[in-house]
Design goal:
The protein has 312 residues and is an alpha+beta fold. The chain has three domains: 83 residues, Uridine Diphospho-n-acetylenolpyruvylglucosamine Reductase, domain 2 (2-Layer Sandwich), CATH 3.30.43.10; 124 residues, Uridine Diphospho-n-acetylenolpyruvylglucosamine Reductase, domain 3; 71 residues, Uridine Diphospho-n-acetylenolpyruvylglucosamine Reductase, domain 1 (Alpha-Beta Complex), CATH 3.90.78. It has eight helices and 18 strands. A hairpin with a 7-residue loop joins strand 16 and strand 17. The longest helix has 19 residues. The radius of gyration is 19 Å and the shape is globular. The structure holds flavin-adenine dinucleotide. Its EC number is 1.3.1.98. Keywords: Cell cycle, Cell division, Cell shape, Cell wall biogenesis/degradation, Cytoplasm, FAD, Flavoprotein, NADP, Oxidoreductase, Peptidoglycan synthesis. Belongs to the MurB family. Cell wall formation. One of its GO terms (biological process) is cell wall organization.
Length: 312
């Protein structure tokens, strides 16, 4: 009923029903979305959020799906994937980027214009919106250092602008993780730099990534946050867990902080592996590893920890 009404209300929207999300996630796992929509404008997002709110249907937003495990049971309600909102524009040292643009492209296009500050992001496979939501970072840099402000559509379906300060950005954290606001555009300010130095830094970071990370396999990057006073990879390595396999999910032999899909992994394999690692490290080192990856979707017997919306 809701899905029919939705189709009628948005006849031109790019909409797929019962669409398997494993076709989009970086782990190549995850069940179907009741409906997956690719909005093209902020106005469209606002209208869709309002429509879903009226029908008491939850809304989940995804960017590039590089930091999510979505349960095998799938996702209730409406999933908005913002990959069509992929514009990037420059004015001097200021950048406007649609939430669905790739942060790698923003970083590289800035580098092409001799703008420095986003080199750290040249290998982070997320969208601009996802990078803000996660305050993504690498090699000593993070989004908080270059972000000016964002435009959002709130949970209630209203537009507003939030400054960097008001986002309370911290290690892999933004206030968006509490508010549920949807980023539609981000604005950055960089500095004029030296073209050759910027290119050399990006080449160095790319080389470091390629030599240390198992990029030849599907994964969601580092699964856990760095616990204070420890390195996650080192804890997992020292526990002798590298190569441990559950179904198609394996703790990478190349980088212990990654869980790779060696073929046919399910989201349940990933979630069971996350719990196994947490339990093992807690017993051995008395350290509780907190997932960095967002675990989303319908609740299951496997204790999905966060589905991004409240159930009635
Ligand atoms: C190989 C690999 C390497 C990685 N390396 C790094 C790294 O070096 N540093 C790092 O920080 N991360 C890294 N990541 C993780 C990931 O790329 C980042 O967290 C990225 O910022 C996530 O963006 P996304 O668009 O893929 O988000 P998604 O995975 O689509 O979503 C992640 C979360 O953000 C929310 N979200 C997404 N878009 C929006 C939006 N527009 N508005 C509101 N909420 C939104 C989603 O609801 C979800 O909760 C890596 C991942 C992989 C696979």
């Amino acid at each position: 009923m809701f899905l029919n009404d939705l189709r009628r209300a948005f006849p031109n929207a790019n909409m797929k029903f019962n669409e398997p999300l494993k076709h989009y996630t970086y782990t190549e796992t995850g069940g179907p979305a009741d409906v997956l929509i690719f909005p093209e404008t902020a106005e469209e997002i606002k209208a869709l959020v309002r429509f879903a709110n009226k029908a008491h249907e939850p809304v989940l937003v995804l960017g590039n799906s590089s930091n999510v495990i979505i349960s095998d049971e799938g996702v209730y309600g409406v999933v908005l994937m913002l990959t069509e909102m992929d514009y990037i524009s420059f004015e001097g040292d200021e950048i406007k980027a649609g939430a669905g643009s790739k942060i790698i492209d923003v970083s590289r296009q800035a580098g092409d214009r001799s703008l420095t500050g986003l080199e750290f992001a040249c290998g982070i496979p997320g969208s601009t919106g996802g990078a803000v939501y996660m305050n993504a970072g690498a090699y000593g840099g993070e989004i908080s250092e270059v972000l000016v402000e964002i435009d959002v559509v709130s949970k209630a379906g209203r537009f507003y602008t939030i400054s960097n300060e008001d986002l309370k950005l911290a290690y892999r954290y933004s206030d968006l993780q509490e508010s549920g606001d949807i980023v539609v555009e981000a604005r950055f300010k960089l500095q004029a730099g030296d073209y050759d130095t910027i290119q050399a830094t990006m080449a160095e970071l790319t080389e470091a990534r390629e030599s240390k990370q198992p990029l030849e396999y599907p994964s969601c990057g580092s699964v856990f946050k760095r616990p204070e006073g420890h390195y996650t990879g080192k804890l997992i390595q020292e526990a002798g867990l590298q190569g441990y396999t559950i179904g198609g999910a394996q703790i990478s032999k190349k980088h212990a902080g990654f869980i790779i899909n060696i073929g046919g992994a399910s989201a349940t394999d990933y979630i069971n592996m996350i719990h196994f690692i947490q339990e093992t490290i807690y017993k051995k080192d008395n350290v509780l590893l907190e997932p960095e990856v967002r675990i989303l979707g319908k609740r299951t017997k496997y204790d999905v920890v966060d589905d991004g919306f409240e159930h009635q």
